[in-house]
Amino acid sequence: QDTLIVWSEAENYDLALSFQEKAGCDEIWEKICQVQGKDPSVEVTQDLIESEEEHIEEMPETSPLIDLPTCELNKLEEIADLVTSVLSSPIRREKLALALENEGYIKKLLQLFQVCENLENTEGLHHLYEIIRGILFLNKATLFEVMFSDECIMDVVGCLEYDPSLAQPKRHREFLTKTAKFKEVIPITDSELRQKIHQTYRVQYIQDIILPTPSVFEENFLSTLTSFIFFNKVEIVSMLQEDEKFLSEVFAQLTDEATDDDKRCELGMDDLQVRSAATDIFSYLVEFSPSMVREFVMQEAQQSDDDILLINVVIEQMICDTDPELGGAVQLMGLLRTLIDPENMLATANKTEKSEFLNFFYNHCMHVLTAPLLANTSEDKCEKDAVVGSTKSNTICPDNYQTAQLLALILELLTFCVEHHTYHIKNYIMNKDLLRRVLVLMNSKHTFLALCALRFMRRIIGLKDEFYNRYITKGNLFEPVINALLDNGTRYNLLNSAVIELFEFIRVEDIKSLIAHIVENFYNALESIEYVQTFKGLKTKYEQEKDRQNQKLNSVPSILRSNRFRRDARALEEDEEMWFNEDEEEEGEAVVPPVEKSKQEDDFPDSYEKFMETKKAKESEDKENLPKRTSAGGFKFTFSHSASAANGANGANSKSVAAQTSPASSNGSSSKNATLTTAVTATKGSLVGLVDYPDDEDDDEEEETSPRKRPRLGS
User: Mind listing the GO molecular function terms for this protein (predicted)?
Assistant: First the structure.
C-alpha cells in the first residue's frame, strides 16, 4: 500500500511496516516476494485470503458456524469481544455474518439496547456501540438490509450514540427525527419511493457523520455500505424517471411566473443548500462529459450576453463565495480547471475543440476571472508608503484573508493556463501587462499569496520563452521579486527558498538575456547574499559570456583584412530558420508581443530571395564603409539618432548605423539589412561589437544579439 506493507499473524494479530518513501517500501517488498517466490507486481501475495473465500463458497450448510453467546445483558461484553476479534480474519467474519443472519440476532440485540437505555445501563450501552459498529464492519449487504429497515434503523443509530470515547452521548436520533425535515416540492405519492429516500438519507448520515474515519486496516470494511447507498440513489432516480407526472410538474412550476418566491426558493435561487446541490450536479456533468458542457456554453454564447453565460455564472459564484475558507469556490475552481484542460479536449478532422473553446474562453470569460485580481492590484486600490530613509516606495495591496484566499485560487488557475494554453495566455498576459499586476501581490501580508504570485512568474520563466523574457526585462519585472527577497531579510523561510530557487533555475538553465538583466541591474543589491552561491554564479556566467563576446570581437580585424566580415554558413542558416520560426503562426493565431510592431519590421523584405539578394549586394560593399580602427586597437562607430541621418532611409528608422549605410539602405530599403550583415548594434552610443546586453532605454523594436541568441532577421 504505497508506503505500507501489511500482514496478519494468528487470528487477530495484524502487523504493518511503514516507510518514509515509496522507493524503500518497494525495495523491501521485492525482497519479501523473492523469498516467497511471488510476483512483486501484485499487491497481495497472501494465498490464504483467496483460498479461505473459496472454501467459504464450497462450505456445506452443516459446516460448524461460530457459536454466539446467548443474547443477554450479562453477555454483552463477551459478544463485543467476539465481534471485535473476528474483523482481522476474512473466514471468521463470514462465519459470524452467517450466524447473525440465521439466528435473527440483530433484532435481539436492539431489544437489549432499549432495555439498557431504560435502565440507564451505561456499560451495556458502550458494549452495544462496539457490537453494532463491528457488525457494520462485517461489510455484508444481507445484514445491512436488516439493520437499515424501518423497524431497526433508529435503534441502530441509537446504539451508535454511545461512543465510549465521548463524555456525553450524541443526539443523532433527535437530529434525524426533529431537525432534519423532509420537503416535497412536488408531493410524492409512491410510498416505496418515500421510504427509499428516508432510508438513503439516514444511511448516508451514518456513514458521513456517525462512523469515525476508518483506519488503514478498516478502510475497505465499509465498501459494501458505500455500494448500498449508491444503488439506493440509482433506484430513486430510476423511480422518478418512470413517474410520468413528477418531472413535468417540477418544470411547469419553475417556468410559471405565478409561483411565489417561497415556493421557488425550494427549487433554487440563493438558498445555500440548493446552491450546493446545484454545484454537485454541475460537477457530475463536468466529470461525466466535459466536452458536452463545453459544447453547450459555446452554443449559449451565440444567443446570450457574456454576463449570463454558464461559465461566467460559475466564476461569479466562485468570486462571491461567502464561506471564509472558500469551500465552494475551491470546488468550482476545480470544475473550471477541468473545462479548460486541453488534455480532455477532442480533436477531429474537421474541427479542433481546443482551439474553438479556448478562443471562446479568452474572449468571453477570462476578463471575468481576472477582474478581482486586476481590481485589487490597481493603483487606486494600493497605497504608496514611503520607507523612512529610503528613496523607494512599497506598493502594498490592502487584502484581507478571504480576499487573499480568492486571489490565490485565481492565480492557481492562471498558473495552470500558463502551463497548458501557450499563445492564448501569452497574448493575454502581455496585452494586459498581467505579470506586473500579479507581482504587486509580492507585498501582501499573506505569505501564501506572495508565494502564489511568485509561482506564477516561475512557471512563465520555466517555459524559457524569449517573448516572455523580453517582456520581463523590458518591464523590469524582477524588481518586486528582489525587493521581496531583501525585505524578507535573513529569515530562512519558504519565501526565501522559493525566490532563490527561481534565480538558481535561471543560472542552471543559462538563460542569457535574464542573467544579463539581473547582473547589470541588481547585482549590487544581491552580492551581499553569500549563504548560497546562486548570485555569485550568475555573475560568473555573465562574465564568462562577456569574455566570449570579447574574444569574438577581437577576431574581427583579421576577418576584416580578408575583405569581409563573414558569418559562417551555419549561423546564417540558423538566422534564416529563426526568422521563419518566430514569424509563423501557431495553430492559426499569431503570437503578438505586448508592444506594437514597428514600421521597421513592416518594411523589412518578407521573402527569402530578397534577403539573399541584399546579402550579396552587401558583400560587394566598399571597404570605406567599414568601421575604422582607433589608435587603441578598438573600433569607432558613429551613430545617428535622427531619421534624416539615414541618407534616405525610411523615416521610421529612428536609430541607424550611419557609418555603415549601404547602397541598399540608401535606396530606401530598411537599414536593418545593414545591421544584420555587419552584426553591429548600438546601445547608449557605446562601443560594442557582435553583442550587447539588453538596454531598457532602447526602442522596443531594436533587439540586442548574442552568439547563443542569434538575431531575428530585421532586428
Answer: protein phosphatase activator activity
**Which pLDDT value is given to residue 579?**
46
Using alpha carbons, select from 672, 702, 653, 650 the residue that is nearest to residue 605: 672
> Which residue do the cell numbers 541621418 mark?
645
Rounded-to-10 torsion of CA 689, 692, 697, 699: 70
| Gap between the Cα atoms of 374 and 303, Å rounded | 28
Alpha-carbon distance 330 to 406, whole Å?
9
Asked if 536 and 544 count as a contact pair (C-beta separation under 8 A), the reply is no
Angstrom distance (rounded) from CA 468 to CA 490: 31
Which cell numbers in the block locate residue 137?
464492519
Which stretches of the chain drop beneath a pLDDT of 70?
10-13, 43, 45-65, 213-221, 261-266, 268-271, 347-351, 380-399, 556-715
Distance CA 277, CA 410 (A): 23
Domains of the chain by residue range: 1-49, 75-232, 243-380+396-413
Determine the Cα–Cα distance for residues 205 and 193; give it in Å rounded to an integer: 18
| Cβ burial, residue 392 (10 Å; 0-12/13-18/19+) | exposed
What pLDDT was estimated at residue 326? 84
> Measured between alpha carbons, how far is 247 from 115 in angstroms, rounded to an integer?
46
For residue 450, give the amino acid letter. A
- Helix, strand, or coil (residue 386): strand
Ordered DSSP codes for 564-629: S----HHHHHHHHHHHHHHHSPBTTB----SSPPPHHHHHS--SHHHHHHHHHHHHT--GGGSPEE
- pLDDT tens digits, 441-493: 999 999 999 999 999 999 999 999 999 999 999 999 999 999 999 999 888 99
**Overall residue count recorded for the chain in this entry:** 715
Cβ contact 600:670 at 8 Å: yes
Say what the pTM is. Answer: 0.49
| Cα gap 233→245, rounded to integer Å | 20
- SS3 call for 142: helix
Which distant-in-sequence residues (6+ apart) come within 8 Å of 661 by Cβ?
A: 625, 646, 647, 649, 671, 674
The domain defined by 1-49 folds into: PH-domain like (2.30.29)
pLDDT computed for residue 544 by the predictor: 93
Cβ–Cβ < 8 Å for 126, 88: no
